[in-house]
Amino acid sequence: xxxxxxxxxxxxxxxxxxxxxxxxxxxxxxxxxxxxxxxxxxxxxxxxxxxxxxxxxxxxxxxxxxxxxxxxxxxxxxxxxxxxxxxxxxxxxxxxxxxxxxxxxxxxxxxxxxxxxxxxxxxxxxxxxxxxxxxxxxxxxxxxxxxxxxxxxxxxxxxxxxxxxxxxxxxxxxxxxxxxxxxxxxxxxxxxxxxxxxxxxxxxxxxxxxxxxxxxxxxxxxxxxxxxxxxxxxxxxxxxxxxxxxxxxxxxxxxxxxxxxxxxxxxxxxxxxxxxxxxxxxxxxxxxxxxxxxxxxxxxxxxxxxxxxxxxxxxxxxxxxxxxxxxxxxxxxxxxxxxxxxxxxxxxxxxxxxxxxxxx
Length: 360
Prior knowledge:
Blueprint: H1 2-9, H2 19-48, E1 52-57, H3 63-78, E2 82-87, H4 92-104, E3 109-113, H5 121-129, E4 134-137, E5 148-152, H6 154-168, E6 172-177, H7 184-202, E7 206-212, H8 219-231, E8 238-241, H9 244-256, E9 264-266, H10 272-279, E10 285-288, H11 291-306, E11 315-318, E12 323-329, E13 332-335, H12 340-344, H13 351-354
Parallel strand pairs: 1-2, 1-3, 3-4, 4-5, 5-12, 6-7, 6-8, 8-9
Antiparallel strand pairs: 10-13, 11-12
Helix pairs in contact: 3-11, 4-5, 6-7, 8-9
């Protein structure tokens, strides 16, 4: 009302009474442009600053994880990022606390290998509630709606393991040593195995005489489970082990019971000790998952997500609540005949290291 009175009493004539209004509009426009400029500057500053990447890892018990971390850390640091690692020592509660603490350290993105696919859900939801993106590395956090999942085709890993054994042993008694039920990868591995094995079971060619689900991928649980099968006097022709560490436990039990020559064992991860056993004819096969490809892809995506970019993924995967973007890498079967053209050719292990016990 005060402005209207001023306009009515202002001289000279009426046509010039609009000038204060035009001035106000011009001022408002200038203010909007200035604010927009500030916002753009802030966004640019955000993109220019070194992103802080928090990496939450289940454990370093399995050989491969140190390799993952070394490659990932070097890659993100070369891209100008700060890297913070927390290792939970196979403890889901400890990992939950560490994840929340990483938020307090000002991370721009969380990369997580969960100990438990379900128990870490609330911690990840907390991170996302703080507007921090989350990348699930190799293992999926369920019902958390992560921004990206980067892993190998775990169902295909299980299928490759089963296919390799069924070609070598088309008939007989099979034992499956799975990973932990709390690991979504173990569930997918198992699904892939059964996709190959179930039709052969239905046809009467093979029999699955025992499935073992070790807690936390524990070798001792695998050992006890296999010893129980042997104690029941059931013949064992083939063992599919969830990883090479479990395969080693199975091989030791079979050897102690003079059964190693009559049963074949497969694992996954292409650990050096497993590749040595394959070269020596002790382990039948493993699955090679090129860790460098996984770590480098994940590192690049982590930087992009930290800077506010979106990743579509190759496909999507159902996390139990929503479909999340999934970058899916291909696993590779390794047998004695394939060592040279896979893990050795890629420089994953040297020929000298693999054939050391054979004097090559």
